[in-house]
Amino acid sequence: MDTTLGLYATGALALALLVTWLPARLRRSRAKHRSLAGHSRISRRLAALVPFYSYGEQEFFASDGAPADVATTRRAALERLARDYRERHPRALALGERLEPSVSDVAFTNAYRVPFQYRDYLRERLKVASFVEESADVRLRDHDGNWSYDLSGSYGVNLFGYDFYKECIDAGAARVHALGPVLGPYHPIIEENVRRIREISNLDEVSFHMSGTEAVMQAVRLAQYHTRRPNVVLFCGAYHGWWDGVQPGVGNPRRVTDVYTLADMSERSLAVLRTRDDVACLLVNPLQALHPNSSAPGDSALVDSSRAARFDRGAYSKWLAKLRAVCTERDIALIFDEVFLGFRLARGGAQEYFGVRADLVTYGKTLGGGLPVGVLCGTHRFMKRFRDDRPSDVCIARGTFNSHPYVLGAMNEFLRRLDTPAIAATYAGLDERWNSRAASLNERLEAQGLPVRVANMASVWTILYLRPSRYNWMFQFYLRAEGLNLSWVGTGRLIFSHNYSDADFAAVADRFVRAAAAMHADGWWWSAPALTNKAIRQRILRELLRARFGRRAPAAAPTALVNRRA
Ligand SMILES: Cc1ncc(COP(=O)(O)O)c(C=O)c1O
């Protein structure tokens, strides 16, 4: 009898758990973005299965089924680009070769500039080496003495022009020189920095860190500490630094179990936030407004032309307002990660630009006045690192170099200059200026029948491709050949500094159009009428399966794959 009762009780308990747990689990699954990036665990497993294979000469030039004459034109074009590059960059190329075996970053970035199938063939012919020695205005001088327009923006640090930051660093260093690199006690300059940052962020407290990654790390830890809840919500595709606590997908070997990656701009995600009791914080990177649910668009992933981007300020503002409301309702800490965008869209950052207040805000990059930094601001409630009634229960933040006097000095100069009439003026008409620059470039591209366009969020741009193609990644080399300096992600992200004059921009636009026209003339955008992005992806899938399982190619598949399976 007792046993029967016990069984009933266990069954009832299990049923009750199922009835409450299952709907919540289903709700969370439905709130994931349907792309692979939306499923971090699956994408990590799949990434580990992708085999390397490499195109031989024939496939390199005709992986889209191009006829022999087009492939010949492309081959000649590659040889010409490679020759020009070798002639213009002999010292940089030699230095790159010497460093590659001993600087891990050089080896990695060299390996991931283009889709991996093309890597080996390309690298034997055309190498890129990035060494620069001087900056002036909006241009850079490389190791071989060539000047180029900088579209890399130093990962977003360069907002007001390199000369501005040189001044911040020099003047800041002079202000703290008497103290030198003394760590522990603060230089009194900190007081003014804190006052200014509090006023800009409209928040109560500030903490200083050595990188944006660490500022995000501390924001998340504090949210977990104060809400006593374990889980973090972030949106599909959003980057928040390289701490594994906010990087559940590919690239992080550690298994992350406390992050929910939900679909951006989706009512289903709101339903999850509204109904769960285990969410400590919601992290938002407002840069995602340009391409919700997609990762930073690097050229090594540019296998077809499906890259999409479109910024809608009104729609994103409404979305953020909804997030604010649900976070308030559920006592979830709303964290704006403004490490990248802070100060770019408005003096008061994304909070001001989108008209929504966060509980915690991270800044970094440009706020250091050219030196490395991460800053966290928040309400008293979330920033406090100890509990008055539980003396041993603390939330620690460390970092030898945080509040380094030289960084505080350069930051102080940055913050003071921010309020000068010259810098304040750069914010006036910002959207109109950059939107009209993008529109005018797009008009020129359209008028010349070139299958490439730009999309932008103020001065952060990305390049889009109109015609299904397997060779869009080649465009980065044409842009570089025209003296436009790109970051490692190539055409995925162009970052302009706000000291670009109309004349500077006109020069960039001329070069951009010339690069696109040359690439077009060289046949890389040749496309069979039947070629679609879907067909490209299907073909790549077939190649992957063949490389993985060693099956013979179907009749229409490539003939020159070199399988590098161990
Ligand atoms: C939105 C965002 N958060 C955090 C980080 C990390 O900052 P850091 O590279 O200074 O660690 C970045 C860097 O690109 C970023 O864009």
Topology:
Blueprint: H1 2-30, H2 40-49, E1 53-55, H3 57-62, H4 68-88, H5 90-99, H6 104-111, H7 116-125, E2 132-136, E3 139-142, E4 147-150, H8 162-176, H9 189-201, E5 205-209, H10 212-227, E6 231-235, E7 259-262, H11 267-275, E8 279-284, H12 313-330, E9 333-337, H13 349-354, E10 360-364, E11 374-378, H14 380-383, E12 386-387, E13 390-394, H15 405-418, H16 421-427, H17 430-447, E14 452-457, E15 460-465, H18 475-481, E16 484-485, E17 494-495, H19 502-521, H20 533-549, E18 561-563
Parallel strand pairs: 4-16, 6-7, 6-8, 8-9, 9-10
Antiparallel strand pairs: 1-18, 2-3, 3-4, 5-11, 10-11, 12-13, 14-15, 15-17
Helix pairs in contact: 1-11, 8-15, 9-15, 11-12, 17-19, 18-19
Overview of the structural elements:
46% of the residues lie in helices and 14% in strands. It has 20 helices and 18 strands. It has helices spanning 2-30, 40-49, 57-62, 68-88, 90-99, 104-111, 116-125, 162-176, 189-201, 212-227, 267-275, 313-330, 349-354, 380-383, 405-418, 421-427, 430-447, 475-481, 502-521, 533-549, and strands at 53-55, 132-136, 139-142, 147-150, 205-209, 231-235, 259-262, 279-284, 333-337, 360-364, 374-378, 386-387, 390-394, 452-457, 460-465, 484-485, 494-495, 561-563. A seven-stranded mixed β-sheet has the order 5-11-10-9-8-6-7, sandwiched between helices. Strands 2-3-4-16 form a four-stranded mixed β-sheet. A hairpin with a 2-residue loop joins strand 12 (386-387) and strand 13. The longest helix has 29 residues, at 2-30. The chain is globular and about 80 Å long. The termini are far apart. Residues 552-566 have low confidence and may be disordered. It binds pyridoxal-5'-phosphate (PLP).
